[in-house]
Amino acid sequence: MKSRRADAVFGFLHENTIVSAADELRWEALGVRATVLPVDIDTIIYDHLCQNQGLSFNDEADLGTASGEAVLGKMTVQPGRIEISRQLKIEGNEGRLRFTIAHEIGHWVLHRPLILADERQYSLLGSEKHQLVTLNRAINGLTSAPEEIQANMFASELLIPRKQLGEEWGRRNSLRPVATKSGSDLKLIAREAAIARMPGLPALTDVFAVSAEAMAIALLRRKLVAPPASLLEGF
Ligand SMILES: [Zn+2]
Q: Structural domain boundaries of the chain?
């Protein structure tokens, strides 16, 4: 559901702003280890955000459901807190857990300062509503809420840095985007590229410790898997 509050506060965050914010956080938190894969999300959370920005973090929260859907994560503005559903740990799917944590970090980095700065909005919301709640569909399905799209983009940039993805892609595909016939299923091709194992090289999903879905979306967004027309535009 698209709320008026979200449009008013979060509507105009540019993609470049989100890419830069993710890069900056990685370098600030990890220093020289910012380029080591997979990206060390625990150090970003515990050694940087908790230590330096007063974040309280709980990844074994019982978040229940909202609107009939599992709540995967929650970011509380004041006092600053991120909660992650313990359900994600039980599942044992590291990629989904990491992406959800990175998504909540996106709310923390991109949206918390906006809410805090917008004092009028802030006081209207009332203290119990200083929260962004992330439903299952925001991570794993379609969402049109700007703050959820932005948090997903942030998570993708944080866990799958462009430079490192370019290098890993180059090792596997000689830096060429995957050319496809028009009418072919790009999502399927991107998913296959995400999990493909080549001799001596682990799958991209293993290198970055993300799900096949998250990697496929990154490959499409960065046009490493692209339809023939957009490949031609690049020359
Ligand atoms: Zn969210």
A: 4-159, 162-228
